[in-house]
Amino acid sequence: MTATEEMNRCRVVLIAPRVDDLAKLKSCLARAVEGGDVASLILPAYGDGEAAFQRRAELVVPMMQARDIAVMVEGDTRVAGRVGADGVHFEGRKEGLEELIAKFQGRMMIGAGGAKSRDDALELGEARPDYMFFGRFGYDTTPEPHHRNLSLGKWWAEMIELPAIVMAGSDIASVRTVAATGAEFVAVSGAVFAEDADPAERVAAANALLDETAPRFGVGE
């Protein structure tokens, strides 16, 4: 999950919303990707049992991959394997991450999240995941990103080569704040999938803001 030469600035990562109606979920996601560049999508489990989660993954993975958007499935390697997901998003301790990477990296991407401090992030980073995610699914409920996520994302982007994904706030304009940290990716969910939002318009707005304001990677280095 690295920025391409053609898109050498912070890119959008979608966090799939918690929508139990599969037809509605499909419509929301299909509409969102009509709005422009999306690097990838993370599909949280949201506490679903394996069967329900797999049904959601079976719907989401092929429709996103058909648009060249990588899909990361949270936590469940069995579901990820059955639906042909591009990777697994893991939140937990270093030992679990290392075990996952040893078994599956090379066959699929392994991303990490859940760090609440620099020490947490460094410990997880020692396992060399494909990215580090700063934020919590479903907690992007304020207009601006959480200050801890911004602080950790900025520090990580300055110090560590592994790509960073930082969670934006509920206001789509907050993608600018995330991009200013130097993170390679900005995660959006509530800002795109709110009840009163047109997902395509919100993704288009995010990309326009990033085009205008995001630092360009490699410039001045």
List the helices and strands and how they pair.
Elements: E1 11-15, H1 22-33, E2 40-43, H2 50-65, E3 70-74, H3 77-83, E4 87-91, H4 94-104, E5 109-113, H5 118-125, E6 131-134, H6 147-159, E7 164-167, H7 175-179, E8 185-188, H8 190-193, H9 199-213
Parallel strand pairs: 1-2, 1-8, 2-3, 3-4, 4-5, 5-6, 6-7, 7-8
Structure in words:
- There is one protein chain.
- With 221 residues, the chain is an alpha/beta fold.
- It has a single domain, classed as Aldolase class I (TIM Barrel, Alpha-Beta Barrel), CATH 3.20.20.70.
- It contains 9 helices and 8 strands.
- Helix 1 packs parallel to helix 2 and helix 1 runs parallel beside helix 9.
- The N terminus is likely disordered.
By CATH, the superfamily comes out as Aldolase class I
The portion of residues assigned to helices is: 40-55%
Which of globular, elongated, flat, extended, rod-shaped describes the shape? globular
Q: What percent of residues are in strands?
A: 15-25%
How many structural domains?
1
Elements, N to C (H/E): EHEHEHEHEHEHEHEHH
What is the CATH top level name? Alpha Beta
How many angstroms does the end-to-end distance come to? 21 Å
Instruction: Please identify the structural class as seen in this structure.
Output: alpha/beta
